[in-house]
């Protein structure tokens, strides 16, 4: 099973990556920019594997770039306390 197929596993995966990035000294602007790039890649290249990802994909598809950056920032906030530390 892919990490993308389970919403909780996906959030934990993202949380782990966020923890690694911040531990390595990556600042919040860079983290948010990377989150935007990942979101854009997923929206354009990966078929959503669950209902939550479908909602995010649908929102991303109708959002302006500024709104997409806000979605990416909210995803960062959502996973900040997820993942193994």
Number of domains: 1
The helicity comes to over 70%
Under CATH, the topology can be stated as Cytochrome Bc1 Complex, Chain D, domain 2
The class by helix and strand makeup works out as: mainly alpha
Taking the alpha carbons of the first and last residues, their distance comes to 23 Å
**Strand and helix order:** HHHH
Shape assignment: globular
| Average pLDDT number | 87
- Which CATH architecture would you pick? Orthogonal Bundle
Determine the strand fraction and express it as a percent band.
under 5%
Largest sheet: none
| Low-pLDDT segments | none
- The CATH class name reads Mainly Alpha
Strand count: 0
Rg (CA only)? 12 Å
Pfam families: DUF3243
Organism: Pseudobacillus wudalianchiensis
InterPro entries: DUF3243, Uncharacterised_YmfJ, YmfJ/YflH_sf
Protein name: DUF3243 domain-containing protein
Verbal overview:
By secondary structure, this protein is mainly alpha-helical. The chain has one domain (3-79): Cytochrome Bc1 Complex, Chain D, domain 2. 73% of the residues lie in helices and 0% in strands. It contains 4 helices and no strands. The protein has helices at 7-23, 28-45, 51-62, 65-79. 7% of the residues are buried. The mean pLDDT is 87.
């Amino acid at each position: 099973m892919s990490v993308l197929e389970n919403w909780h596993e996906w959030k934990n995966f993202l949380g782990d990556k966020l923890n690694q990035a911040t531990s390595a000294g990556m600042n919040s602007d860079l983290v948010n920019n990377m989150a935007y790039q990942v979101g854009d890649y997923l929206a354009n290249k990966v078929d959503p594997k669950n209902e939550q990802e479908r909602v995010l994909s649908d929102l991303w598809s109708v959002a302006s770039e500024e709104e997409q950056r806000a979605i990416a920032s909210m995803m960062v906030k959502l996973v900040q306390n997820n993942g193994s530390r």
